[in-house]
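[SOLVED] Need 3D model of a two-part complex

Original post:
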Amino acid sequence: MPYYKFKSNEVYHNTLKTYPSIKFVVYSGSAHYNDNPSFRGSFADPIIPQKPGQVSLYEMNVDRSSSDTGRFIGPAVLSEPGDTPEIPGIPDNGLIFSFVSKNGSRLGFRSSATDVSWNAALYGTPLYGNYPYTSSISKEFYSPTTPRSASNPIYVSATNMTGAVSHLLALKNTINHYGYVSPEFAYSSSARDFNEVEIGLVNIPTIFYGSSIKKGTVDLKYYITGTLLAQAKDKNKNGLLMCTYGTSSVSGSTVGLVLYDEGILILTSSMELSSVSADAYTSSAGLSTPRWTYFAQSLSGSVLGTVGPDLGPGPDPTAGLITATSASFIMEMSGTSTTQTLTMFANAQKGQLNQSNNPTFLQYSTNNYASTGSKAYIENDKLQIKNVVSSSYPDPTGSFEKTTYISKVGVYDENKNLIAIAKVATPVKKTVERDFTFKIKLDI
Amino acid sequence: MATSFKTFDPNKDSVVTRNLLHEAIPMTGTIVSGTYADLNIKNYSHGMFQSVYDYPFLSSSANHIFDLTCGYPATSSLSGASSTQNAKKINIYNQMAQVLAGFDAEGAVRRFDKDGDLTSGDKINEAYFINLTRLLSKDEVKKGSFTLSLGVNATYGSPFTETINITDASGSDGYKVNSPAGEYGILFANNGTGTPMATADPQPVGLLYYQAGIAVLTASVFGGILSSSAEMNASAETVDAVLSGSAISGNCDDLRHRFLNLSFNNSTELNSTVYFCRTNNTDFNYSSNPTYLSASKMVVKNNSQDVPVSYVTAVGLYSPDNELLAVAKLSEPLKKDPTTEFTIRVRLDY
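Solution:
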């Protein structure tokens, strides 16, 4: 079998860039991703323990529900006999979950272990994690008075939280960085200070859009009772969200910013989109009229308060569940996904690759055995090649012509190890006069 | 940005560690034996094994959980021209045996040994194989955590009236290493519900290959070790009759019919290097950050007598030719002045 070395112009590395579309529908406290339905299983509803707008990073517990079986996986007691307190074994609750045994490596799970619980656990104690790990969009609403940093205390406790800043303030340098695109990208200017105005922040995790949101594809729609109230697009591909449909006082103006690489939408327009259609956006107790800063507000936990999780401001439990039942929102855009590809051109030149070691290449009646003796090893030098040239008659055939059929191309490394095989859909007829170039593409 | 470097002493400032991350994997037998009306069971045209999923396999949500197959060697009493799929069963056994048990001095495929002592003792001739997927077994099955409960009641229609529990309880400290496929433990059967076993428990009934994630189960769990042999199908055939007279897929169906529970813990190795980055009292008290100075004065010093202060926000790891390879960020800046020393522990997982 002949080997041919790829020349420098026969191997190319390319990047294939694709733009998968993304769609979120936000309504009544939930986000729905790409219109994916939610299925009920035989044991669990939904079959995967995630909300509709989430992407599960670890789909292990398919159609499983938690129940105490009373069994243990492995020994029922992990500690040595007589040790107190006793360390119970790994419980079988019907779900797949992760765990590590506490040791000196200081490993633990962020979702379950705190400093206090980790320190209190005996060495050898299992520390548990939970599946699934999910990712989802989130919305944060900052009123003019919502504190942006610890200097305006947002979460004071006995632990070291005083250094925390809000997600909005954490984006200050990033926002200012894009100032070369438009003066609108300024955290604080004579026209506006993000610390003092109403802001809606929509965070889209990178798993949804890849390396970047494609410029010019962001499309936000604001519906009231199913009727389109307003629409905003980044039609100039410069990160400025322009209101393209809606009340005349807002239409045509810039209503927000898009941070394409970071997956952040910053909605800045607090102008009224409608004087009617008031709904419970910021408080279950009070009604407000629609505005762009309320976009996707019905995602639960959208109102920030003075208490929250460990880092940064968190949902305000006193605000109640904000559902804004008359409003629904659609957010569409395209992400950017890159795939590295290797393209190789394998050439079959004229006058080459006209011989095959396939047994069917020879006449059926050909005797190809070698005769051996005490003084000689002789192969048959009169092997007859099967003539497959077609003619109008089954026999005799047409004039003899060396013919092979190429069915696959092997790719070898420099040590002649076969590392890949490319197969053609149907064998390609190769005669002495014909030459071919096979284009082989490999995603890497 | 750092403008001064401290060189690691490889003997004192870094250590390679290995930690184990585990997952608890419970599998209720109903998934395997009928909840989904066998829509989660995939049989192939080659007929040499059967795949089991945790959900109907046409759904994109389904996970492949294990494969089932069975076989016997050519020397088995069940081997014969009249046996269904005889060659395939022999090939399956030989393939599993040569990978898991290896070859003897003459180059012949070793048969599975009941107690792992290859020099003598009983062999496992007729065997079921449970090949756990890599998704579930990960790097290896955690030793001493495997439990398989089988219904062994004699009547086919009520298999779980009597059960046995098969465990590798001795695996945590009694595993074997004389296999080309890694470490393995002996599976022992104990009475579960009722006392179906003919002799005192525990009895060795198979082998569990931890790294390969394969359980080898002797067919005698449904015959020889029981007081009353189990009926393997609706025709009340014994396990030997089914092994010789039914196809591999049929044998797998019969095994699944008696599958009560399977659970084990898996392990994933996390290899890490920990670098101890030591800052002595006189180190890193100054910063080249532009904000450190204002009008040629340190902004953190009010008068000349104040000690210099800096805030450590990140640790850069550099190659010997001073190329930045990795950056470790602190969750919050650490205040550093000449009165303090830190050892910052940087762990690199790979």
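Edit: Residues 339-443 of chain A form one domain.
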